[in-house]
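Input record (one chain):
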Amino acid sequence: MVRAAVCLLLVSFLAACAGTSNNANVDKVRSDASATSLIDASVTGHMDRIRTLVENGAPLNVVTDRSTPLIVAAVHGHDRVAWYLLSEGADPNLADRAGRTPLIAASAQGSQRLVKLMLSAGATVNTSGANGQTPVSAAAEAGNLSVVKTLLAAGGNVNIAPGGESLLMRVVRNGDLLMTEVLIGAGADTGFRTEEGRTALTLARQNRHRDIEMLLVQAGAER
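The corresponding structure, as predicted from the sequence alone:
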């Protein structure tokens, strides 16, 4: 209860601040010593160090070989750091050089707080990164069921085919029955075929996932 209240307070405050931040370091997309230091501090979650760096002009929206401060904070599960960076003007849709966005990173990490925070800050739910990965696919392939449900409620698309194979097929290959059920319930195409003619049902049978095979057949997948 307390955590939920704190998270709600943070999100509310972020919403109030998002449109008013005029920090001089918001639009600096460059790499320098202060950017490296900010990323280092975001890895460890050292808030005092992060505040000092930001107050002294460290660029928030910087893309280095190591990603961005906000993405690094998301990867390491530092929701307090992520909230602070966003409230100071960090871009929730700034991707790193691999095409990964903060929301994709948070979704893969499996943190509900971070995912909701990114969405509240304006993160694009169906953004596509490297190899067609999206927040939904990142969460689904990592087995983060509750995060997938949150993303779907925000308009996440289940009918994507990163790498030429549908998200449903990838989940089926992993043998994740509950995730398969959720994706089908959200409208996943059970009849999607790869260029080689494989389907989710094909994979279920090849990997002997009998429960998933039955679920797919019940959902209308062709035998």
